[in-house]
């Protein structure tokens, strides 16, 4: 595989020769999903930065482990997996060596912008900074940070890497888009670690069937079923893993605990954002002891309300965070309990990014939703699984339920 | 697990005590899918009959192995798997010990009526006998056959076992119905052996969630996604495995070869039906050498036509075998080649038996297609994947294609 | 399986009936190794105690994750696995229902005595308390603790459970002994999560072949190879996982960091012992920042010495902790560096507890080392893999190596 | 991976471009063990020859499937696996493109010399032709055979390929030697299909750690445990799979049935050798009906004697076939039964070819048996598992056992 390494990598590795004449530059790491992952010198250098090492202590599925106890895998191993799949895909795509180097770096670094507990603190961070986890320019282009320095030593452009992570440009879609290697890895890895079979997509095939057609990333001819399988897998994993009610309750409790912690302590959001999971757990135990301890002992709130889209007034799914907080207060007041003990959890409407996947059918690039009858069915099924939840301590679910139905005008 | 064994089994095994005090009666067999399968004395006695041993030489996926080379598993190991899942399901169902014994026997014997190459010779046999492979009364109730004698020695009613295999009665649905353990095993096993991931259903959950409600076999509350997964898994396995065009071509060639063999030789259909795969392979090599050798060397016909439902005249999918044979002759004549060298392959309209699965939703038993928006989507996708095929030797595909489009009035 | 549940469990679960007539009392948990683990009411009650929930935050393999990035599994999921294997073994053993209940509780609770980072802090704790992690009487019999209260509510004897965890009594060997379900689970689970294949023992067979013969736990006839496989698997996992040099270096650094933390802070050992991994990580970052940060960023010491038993003076393997610390000081002085920057790591002589496993051969109970020629070979191989290590910051390995060879009188 | 393809392959594939710009020449096949196997044009051409297609109908483990019902995998899929591992190893070895092409061809063709039922008919064929299954010059260099013609069309030297299959030359050891990719594939594959875990070697690592040192194939530094694992895996698979007594009984019955078939029919040995499994099964059913039917219905002989090396007179393990046949006659006469109903089965002394594996230890190439204490232990364990067997119909085991102990002078 030696030829696909960039000149940079080659020179750097010239004196090591640990791995024989054809592939002298690769360091193998054992992964539980992809077996051996061979790191090129670029990856090897980046991996040693604090920004990447920190991901060892950020769990991939945050509160899902309270439902599936084996789901303790981290964003570090996931990042290695995404790097590996990007590396394989690049073999089959027509990109120059420099772009390939930037792509591999972007794949490895795509999650360094995550806060503690990954997606679970995304909203808190967004509300206070206006930034998403994949906006990582602040981190990668800061010359004081080791990761920026490492990129520059490797003669890679930090700005360009950051842009790829945001999915910009036709080839950024490989790292962040509806056909990205991110989801190929996480569906497979989350299935492996939860023990749930539904994430079993054919990533070996997907990654080999990617093509660039007129500057767009597409799946080659004969892959409608392959594309559908990814869509469907996500829908099933949503239903039984990602949006399991216990995980959503714990996630909502964590969100509220983080808000209170940031309100009460003198922690700044920038500092918060760079915490690892263990830092946050300890901080919550100290500053928000009631919720913190409930989370540590899995002594979770229960559902006072759990209801579908057909039972809520129009527009409810679009209600903002402030309005939800106000509703919590009203409900608490009506139920006669502490406002901190009620959580209203209204998820966004289900989107199915994968439905706009591009596939070649009879020589023409089509959107999956146009090529597959299935997409509409899955979209309807996703809609049918949407739930609004109101949670509170077990002994108050009855009063809170009643108050919530009144305040939120539920059927 | 001792208590779930019938009195019959217990007495017979009393003096063996190979397996300790709680479960003295079970013989373990190692399976590549379910790890250890414990055989109760009833299963152990039935397994030694020639009817079951023959299944060691009947492949589960017949011609699919010409596409997926590792798909060499047999109806014998599949039958053990179905027995095992039935046995587990019975633990969670409220059936008496005698019914349980009959069910386990039916699960183990459910495929003894298959001809050589399983489903691939179903049509030949049905055209000449009017019987399906799951009508096994002729075999199980024939007092001259060891399998009938074994059932009677075990104090089981052969007639009742045969009826269960046909799926009759509320509990027969466990063996043959839209929620049967047959499909739970084959989806999992076919995925394991082809290497295709899409058959990965959660059979561990399915089998524990079966209930009898008012005499109907249903999936308990909270299992819409579980039921959908089975439906979807079948749809994907159809697309990439069961109806792969190479497998369909080989299957159609086998069907024609069997017809010619039965026409030319003095073999009777009853004898044919009891052949194992190897007997048929040798018989074809002798009596139908041209097609026989092509099948052995994977020197298969190619597609002259491969077209979807939107391109065929109304009613085409319902055309009978005789009409297809006549079309073959017409096409061959028009193309100026030997009529034996053209095959017209028109599959039935796709049915989705699983869509009538019963699931409990909010305390009410519903049909899956009423409870799930997904079913319609899958049904449409299945329809979109329907293909009419016309096959012939590679060097004649052009002429035959042209003639076929004319004769069959295709767009 | 209903019959094997104790009366206690049955009564408690009478009104739930979630799982059908045969097994109304079992709650299923999805595990990545054993698929579904069914919890009986005893296990369900115990799992909710803080002592067991804490194990969610104690990693099974502590520093091994710095070598195998996917090895993030916890003592919580391992404890569920051990419970599950004990539960299966009990089906095949002749024990009364009350003993069975105590055994299952002991299996589930066997690791509650572990400090943060499990085995990695065992020595620190032992040096300061004189106690091993499996001495859990202090915890289980303390009436102020929820776990003790839960046991008593379940009418189980905390003292008896503690004794079983220490492996006492003929049947305690199932929980802690050379044939215990603990190692059956961890070999399999550690292999699954590291991605290393060598832990693949046949636990399905082992657990079904356990017998009580004259009050001793033995493997039944025909299992010499099964017993050998467990022994060999441990030897290989030792070589490539448990005693990987990177893991040993990180482990030694953690040990020293814990000592310093306990010396410097006002933390008591009792408090330390009840920490979870995240508490310790944060405490080290605060109180022992240099080592703490090195551990977090995987900026580890390197080997200055790494040498086998044949190169060390007789008796070296038996040298105590104090002597090792003295040697560190002498080496640091000779090399002219800070004494905190040198670690001498002298492991115990390899023991092979599994070699005294009892197996039935030709009707007679034998020790595995007498029944198998292999044991001696594995013992010799283990001895050949013993290594004394001296570690320090990368830039000082040369001087430290030289000094260490002198101080420790190495060849 | 494009660069490692030979010029021949490249030219041939120039117009296909099915697989994108980097790897236009590879055709993927789905395998249940290695996932996707990419065939280069050389492999693709060779696979279509009757000699390779025939391997679809030769089982890998012959009679083992009578013990492990899922062990129905074929020498075809195994040959693909060996090709794949050779292809991967070649990436890490310093061989020229032409040698690489010959090696890949040899890997794919290494089993074409096998008779029906593989190793099980090796002895019959050797006794009548004096040839082993890996002497394939007669087949590969015969210009009338398609496989020879294909090699020549591909500009490969059939003679050289045949030599590599026999393991000659330093690099032939990759195909046939103590470190060959043949055993790496079969240990893994046989474990996958039997469901037995012990074949789980780390083939991913083995294949990447092969080196050529002074013209010898060795495992690079740090791989003693990797080499031991292969040795140990073989020893365990021998014990529980390859030499399982039921498989040995069925194998001995097949051997005798073949002898009688060749004696009675006018089949020539050359013709016999080219049969596939199904041809042989049908031939035996016709010409040796008693044994043939017993094999088909798994109605096997039982053990009259089963005894270890310590109970047989010196030299017994070296007794030749003729002497064994004479002993059978004597035993039959003494027991008063038909001589065709007694089988004496004396296996060779156990050899452990793997023990001479070369590994680099501290920079020096050593034989594994010198570098590892384990080898002796495994050798002794193998010796302890050697068994002499005498088999006959179940109802005569007592008389035959008595007669055999007398005739063979057993303790």
Structure in words:
The structure is a homotetramer of 411-residue chains. The first copy, chain A, is mainly alpha-helical. Chain A folds into 2 domains: 2-242, Hypothetical protein af1432; 301-349 and 386-411, Alpha-Beta Plaits, CATH 3.30.70. Chain A is built from 21 helices and 9 strands. In chain A, strands 5-9-6 form a 3-stranded antiparallel sheet, sandwiched between helices. Chain A has a two-stranded antiparallel sheet with strand order 1-2. A two-stranded antiparallel ribbon of chain A has the order 3-4. In chain A, helix 5 packs across helix 9 (158-165). The radius of gyration of chain A is 23 Å and the shape is globular. At the A-C interface, strand 1, helix 4, helix 11 and helix 16 of A face strand 1, helix 4, helix 11 and helix 16 of C.
Distance between the termini of chain A: 61 Å
What best-fitting shape of chain A do the alpha-carbon axes yield?
globular
* Helix and strand run of chain A: HEEHHHHHHHHHHHEEHHHHHEHEEEHHEH
| Count of DSSP H/I helices of chain A | 21
Q: What CATH architecture of the largest domain in chain A would you give?
A: Orthogonal Bundle
Provide the residue-averaged pLDDT of chain A.
89
Question: Spans of chain A with pLDDT under 50 lasting ≥5 residues?
Answer: 1-24
What class would the helix/strand composition of chain A place it in?
mainly alpha
Radius of gyration of chain A, whole Å: 23 Å
Q: What oligomeric state best describes the polypeptide chains here?
A: homotetramer
CATH class of the largest domain in chain A reads Mainly Alpha
Number of DSSP strand runs of chain A: 9
User: How many separate domains of chain A?
Assistant: 2
The chain pair forming the largest interface, with residue counts per chain, is: A-C, 39 and 38 residues
Q: In percent terms, what proportion of residues of chain A is strand?
A: 5-15%
Region (Disordered) (chains A, B, C, D): 1-23
Keywords (chains A, B, C, D): Hydrolase
Domain HD/PDEase (chains A, B, C, D): 71-196
Protein name (chains A, B, C, D): HD superfamily phosphohydrolase
